[in-house]
Amino acid sequence: MNKVVIFGVGLIGGSFALALRKEQAVHEFVGFGRSAASLEQAKQLGIIDRIGDDVAREVCDADLILLATPVAQMAELFARIAPHLGTHTLVTDGGSTKCDVVAAARANLGDKIAQFVPAHPIAGAEKSGAAAALADLYQAKKVVLTPIPENSKETVARVRKAWELCGAVVSELTPQQHDEVFAAVSHLPHLLSFALVHDLAQRDNRDQLLSFAASGFRDFTRIAASSPEMWRDISLANRDALMREVKRYADELYVVYQALENKDAAKLEEIFSLAREVRNTWSQQ
Question: Can you list the positions of beta strands (E) in the chain?
Answer without folding.
Answer: 3-7, 28-32, 50-51, 64-67, 90-93, 116-117, 119-121, 142-145, 169-172
